[in-house]
Amino acid sequence: MFLVTGATGGIGRRVVRLLRQREQSVRAFVRLTSRYSELEHRGAEIFIGDLREEKDIQKASRGVRYIISAHGSDSDALSLDYRANIELIDQAKANGVEHFVFISVLGADRGYEDAPVFKAKRAVERYLSASGLNYTILRPAGLASNLLPLVERFRETGLYLLIGDRKNRTSIVSTDDLAKIVVDSVTVEGARNQILSVGGPEILLREDIPRIFGRIFNKQPVIINSPLLAVDGLQSALGLFNPQIQKALGTYRTLLANEFFCTKDEIATLEAIYNFKLETLENFLRRYLAV
Ligand SMILES: NC(=O)c1ccc[n+]([C@@H]2O[C@H](COP(=O)([O-])OP(=O)(O)OC[C@H]3O[C@@H](n4cnc5c(N)ncnc54)[C@H](OP(=O)(O)O)[C@@H]3O)[C@@H](O)[C@H]2O)c1
User: Which domains does the chain have, with CATH numbers?
Assistant: First the structure.
C-alpha cells in the first residue's frame, strides 16, 4: 500500500493515476474540501484528514509500505512543509515503511533566508536522510502543469506576464515525467538514498516560455515584463495587514528572483537512473492542448 499526500495536487494526482494504472494499492490523503472523486473512481482508498493534525497522519500511515509526500503548504510552511513531513517520517519509521519519497524543491540547499518553504524543505531533507529509512529526495524545478492555465489565457489574448529578469534560466519539467520518476523511485536501485535535481531536458530562458506558446498557436506573443519591485511593493503593503502572507510572498519572490535550472550532467544522470528520455516543455503542452 502506498500513502500519497497532496493526492489532489499537480504531482500527487498524476502519481495516484500512475500507481493505479500499475494496479498498485493506494491510500490518497485528501481534505474534505479536496476534489478527489477522480481518485476514488480510479480505485484509490480515500483517507480524509488534515495534514496539520498529527493524529490524522498517524492513522493514515498505519499498514503502509511506501510513503510519497507530495503536498503543498497553502502559505503555512511551518505546519505543512515542515511539521507534517517530520510526522510522516516518524510514522514511516514506526510502521516499518520500506521507502519514503519526498518532493523537495530545486535550490533547497542554497540557504535562502526569506523563503520559508525552502528552509522547511531543507530541514526535512536533513531529517529524512538521517532517519535510517530508505529514501529518495527529488528537487524539481518548475512544473509544466503550472503553465496550463497560462497557455489557455495566452490562446485567447496573446498576452504573457513575466515578472523579473526575462533572461533567468529555468528547467521546467513535465509533471508526467516527474510522476513517473516519483513512482519508479521505490524500485529503481540507483534512486535509493539519493537527492536528485529534477528538470526538463532543456535549459530555457524565462522569455522562451511565451515564445513556445507563440509557436504552438502561431501567434506573436506580447510580453508584459513587470519588475520585481512590483512584488516588493505588494509584499510590504500586505505585511501591514497579514504578516503570514508577507512571509509566504518571500518564497514567491525567491522563485521569481533566482535561476532554477538543472545542468546537462544532472539531466543525463536522471535519464540514466530512470532509463527514459524526458520530454520538452513544448511536447508536454502540445499533448495537453492536443495541437
Ligand atoms: N509547483 C511547482 O512548480 C513545484 C516546484 C518544485 C517543488 N514543488 C513541490 O511539489 C509539491 C507538490 O506541488 P504541487 O504543485 O503538485 O502542489 P499543488 O498542486 O499546489 O497541491 C497541493 C496539494 O497539497 C494538499 N494540501 C494542502 N494543504 C493540505 C492540508 N492541510 N491537508 C491535506 N492536504 C493538503 C492540497 O489539497 P487540496 O486539493 O485540498 O487543496 C493539494 O492536494 C509541493 O511540496 C511543492 O513545494 C512544486
Answer: 2-143+174-200+262-279 (3.40.50.720)
